Amino acid sequence: MKSMFFSKSFVFLIISLLLASAHVYSQTFETKVDSILQHKFQPDEPGGVFLVAKDGQPVYRKAFGKANVELNVDMKPEDVFEIGSMTKQFTAIAILMLMEEGKLKLDDDITRFIPDYPTHGKTITIHQLLTHTSGIKDYTHMKSIGSIARKNLSPKELVDFFKNEPMDFEPGEKFQYDNSGYVLLGYIIELVSGMGYEDFIEKNIFQKVGMNHSCYASDREIIKNRAYGYQRHGDKLYNKRHISFNITYAAGSLMSTVDDLLKWQEALNHNLLVSQTTIDLAFTNYTLSNGEKINYGYGWHLKTINGMPDREHGGSIFGFKSMAVYIPEKDIYVVGLTNCDCNSPTQVTRDIASLAAKYF
């Protein structure tokens, strides 16, 4: 009986030590992430929110700095940010959803949907729009972009703004990041579905996934827990410059939270929106016409962290920056959202993902 007592005590001791060790291990990870982010964000300046999830569960979730500098409002983990080009993930998945419904094919020429689009005798496919290999000029790089930046153009009017520009290269010849391609994809979503882009994303993605704090951006609507955007010029901080969200449209006009973006990642992981075969298309490293890999799928950059393949994308729009990294091998998701476009979360998000991959 005595030996059994010591055996149980020994087992209890080992379990206690393991639990204590796990607690310290977790604390160490938290402390290291805190150190990275506290160095980047000052308490009295615009800040950010960061979340780390392992196996779909948050292991780190904190806010830094101010959500509103003028009113001295601290940032909260629940705050809502403009996510800029992370919008492209949602546009890409919306296209894949329509593909599964048989309403379009990825090798369709865009003139099937926009007959008057001048392709200069070339075939430009939906696939090439998704992969930034179409050769269409990026309208955000046009000198005349300032003339429309604050106008509430319709999708057709926005397409008309850039459609007559000369091609930058032959379709499929190069990878060149291109917002025009995702504007065209948004317009095609509207033409094929019969719904506005905003309504399509809200009904078919946000509502289905339970992303209750995500929306198409607006400067006029009251959005609970909105983080206000800032820009810095020299040493001075300013409220963000106004731009019409009809101009950034399907390439960059969504708002979200770190919690909703984790729901988004989980929806992708569990095939809530499209089948596994279809989602694999988004995460395929495609090639140019010469066979060269582009390290991009549909709406995601495909890179590596600690030698492991990852899927990542950032976003930048006046007053805000965003970044998210997913490491499939470890089921680790890291997302960072900031409310000053002077303070990019890109590198720190990758650094935190690298750190998480070593800990978990």
From TrEMBL:
It comes from Prolixibacter bellariivorans. GO terms for molecular function: hydrolase activity. This is Serine hydrolase. Residues 1-26 form the signal peptide. PANTHER family: BETA-LACTAMASE-RELATED DOMAIN-CONTAINING PROTEIN, D-ALANYL-D-ALANINE-CARBOXYPEPTIDASE/ENDOPEPTIDASE AMPH. Pfam families: Beta-lactamase. It comes from the Bacteria. Residues 43-343 form the Beta-lactamase-related domain. Keywords: Hydrolase, Signal.
